[in-house]
Design a protein that fits this description.
CATH topology of the largest domain: TIM Barrel
Number of helices: 19
Largest sheet: 7 strands, mixed
Structural class: alpha/beta
CATH superfamily of the largest domain: Aldolase class I
Helix content: 40-55%
CATH architecture of the largest domain: Alpha-Beta Barrel
Amino acid sequence: MKILFVYPDIEGVEHYGARKFYHGLAYLSAMVKQDGHETELYYADREPTRDELLERVARANPAIVAFSSTTHQHPFVEKWAAWLKEAMPERVLVSGGTHPTLAPEEVIASPNWDAVCVGEGEYAFRELAQRVAEGQPFHDIRNLWVRRGDDIIRNPLRPLIANLDELPFADRELFAFDEILAANDGWVDMMSGRGCPYQCSYCCNPGLQSRYKGLGKYVRFRSVPHVLAEIRALRSRYNVKTINFQDDTFTLDEKWTLEFCEAYGREFKLPFWINTRVERLSEEIVAALARAGCRGVRIGIESGNELLRRDILKRRMSNEDIIAAFRRLRKHGLKAYTCNMLGIPGETKEMIEETIELNRRLEPDDLQFSVFYPYPMTELHDVAVAKGYYVPQAGALSTYYARTSVLNLPTLTQEELAYEYDRFMALKSELSLRRTHPWKYRAKKALRALLRGDEARMERVLNVWRRARRALRRA
């Protein structure tokens, strides 16, 4: 039987410069291929017309069309499902991924979906494929919410997968992985586990922990030998240059991390990057990462204002803790990358300036930043709604990359937010200058110190210098 997966990534390629690999669909594909099913991917990096979508699906001729979507991509998916259900009602349409798991009631309310997958999908989707191939009903499959006419059957969740080693390696061929590697200079995304135990108010993990309560251990890691076996398999097939671990908190389990670092460093000479938290970067862990070949670490700073970070975001770490962690990373030769937000409920223009100044003090090798969005099933979503900052579905963004907010904040205007967004862009350029022209960066840093951080005055001085330099060139 043929299955077509649809992965929407509108504006993503334009923003990042290359397509991405997505583990969720790749695991589903690997599972159903074990049963002899054929899979194909439609990677939608631009919005198709109705005729283009219908032609693409007709050419694949699948029995199941399975969509995966984030909150920002979901409006596109809903529109495409309506086109398909009208033109090809015999196809089984399934919605899964982050957004359907966070907001299943919203998704199943659409009459275009035959099923919505809530939570881990590997075994549920495998069972669905078997039933459809055999022409059997699938209304009772756990983890699926199924529409039968006007009725909706909300099946219970199955236990979480206790042993992640039992899953096959993700099917990278589904994503034309050679092309992705070439476009991303040999960077390979990997996952060593699932789940995060922290209670950040802007993240879906606390809500998912609550939903899965009583169904098994939420935070799980694959065994170190299993992770290393996948890396061996990748190296035997692809031109791998860097391993990029995408786990939320790679160093969460100290014993696992030390075991991994020892085994990885003994066998591989490939550099790797990880995501983790300040609290999980002890001297011992940082030293072990460095010995194993870790090249860099991405860390969520989110805000430079300690009270906002602690009381609103539920990130209980001080600026001094952050600075100390960065010192340890520098001491052992690791690069650092910060993740930041702006437009947080309760945030002011001055607080965003604190975030910018903290990043400037940290001097990360690079940074990312985005405007806060109130994702479903998060504490801050409920706070934003309760305080009247946000009306769900009213003017919701369809893009992750906007410089405006869906919130109406009493502490921060849209104009101030846009200005601070541009200030972050300037900081990103400043950090790029540090990498490419260190002496220019040091000169600019000295000038800022001399002018005591007066950005307007500094820009006037730099403009005078630029005009003088152009005049000398003309002379």
